[in-house]
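Input (structure):
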């Protein structure tokens, strides 16, 4: 099996990609030289672009790590590339979502504002925990939803790693119990504080 390196692009000014894909965080670099982008075009569909089509399946799999609700992928000419089983989406009251992090990047919150116009535009992976849900990704979208005072968003169920429970414990200790209390930081402060927390956690005995 071919061993390849896929890196997700986090910035918003890379000229190799369309602005729409950058704002959706759908841009990837394979082996440091092959650019690909996936643009979400519907609730469960996306379009993948890139010259090295032999990498399409790998890039799609990497993309779905972050956006598992996208199950149908086309190329730029409308040809079906890959289709997965449908994912069941359901409404979740925003106040019932427990974040698994406590900081969000203000630049990312601004970026998601370009495509979030209603509750239906916010879809995040969650884990059912009692009468609430733990959000595993999409915290910038959730924060923007709270800024707009949305009553609910949409979620889909997924698996969870054990460390997430430690992150949730720390979030609660910091009084972050819903998207409404997520703390917005500048990009610089977010990288400094959130990455530092993650590094210390994973390089220690995983205790607080």
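Output (sequence):
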């Amino acid at each position: 099996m071919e061993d390849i390196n896929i890196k997700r692009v986090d910035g918003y000014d890379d000229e190799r990609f369309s602005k729409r894909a950058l704002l959706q965080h759908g841009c990837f670099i394979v082996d440091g030289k092959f650019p690909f982008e996936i643009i979400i075009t519907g609730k469960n569909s996306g379009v993948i672009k890139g010259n090295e089509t032999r990498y399409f399946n790998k890039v799609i799999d990497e993309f779905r790590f972050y956006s598992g609700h996208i199950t149908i992928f086309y190329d730029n000419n409308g040809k079906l590339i890959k289709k997965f089983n449908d994912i069941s989406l359901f409404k979740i009251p925003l106040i019932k979502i427990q974040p698994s992090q406590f900081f969000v990047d203000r630049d990312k919150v601004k970026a998601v504002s370009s495509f979030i116009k209603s509750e239906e535009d916010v879809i995040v992976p969650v884990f059912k925990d009692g009468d609430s849900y733990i959000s595993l990704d999409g915290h910038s979208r959730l924060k923007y939803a709270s800024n707009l005072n949305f009553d609910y968003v949409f979620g889909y169920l997924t698996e969870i790693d054990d460390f997430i429970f430690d992150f949730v414990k720390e979030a609660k200790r910091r009084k972050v119990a819903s998207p409404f209390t997520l703390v917005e930081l500048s990009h610089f402060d977010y990288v400094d504080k959130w990455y530092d927390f993650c590094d210390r956690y994973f390089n220690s005995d995983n205790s607080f």
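Notes: Residues 28 and 101 are 24 Å apart (CA to CA). The chain is about 30% helix and 25% strand.
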